[in-house]
Amino acid sequence: MAIPSGYTDTTLAQYMLSALEGVGGLFEWNTASFAEQINDVLIACSATSVSAVTDVTKLRTLAAYYAWRKALHAGSVRWIDNSVSTMTGGTDRRNQQQIWEHVQQAYRESEMAASAYLPANSAAGAMSGNVATVSRVTYVNDPYQFDAVVTDG
Fold this sequence. Notes:
Shape: extended
Number of domains: 1
Largest sheet: none
Number of helices: 7
Order of helices and strands: HHHHHHH
Strand content: under 5%
Distance between the termini: 61 Å
Radius of gyration: 22 Å
């Protein structure tokens, strides 16, 4: 299969549905279900249309992230009562737990991949900044105060 060189709204929505590895089917989603997530991808890419995005890796990574985020949010609402009877034809809680763990893990993986492309002020984007701030904390009346002396031995 050839690597896509570009996408349309429809083909990106198809990719987002396939990236969910069947989880989208549990929610009875189709390509029309991802309109708002495609808007989120466009905002993150600073683009006004899917066809205008030239960085296919960025587009696919963000699309997968927003698709898994949709699944995470929908799953947390739907499965909060520990019942998947409407989704699996029964009330097998073990099955529900496995699906939920898969959604959570896939979301975390997609979030890490997308963090390189998201704005630094977003939760996932902040992870890509690799910024650490170290400062001395002192407390008034701290009985354990000391001055560390570092010498080159």
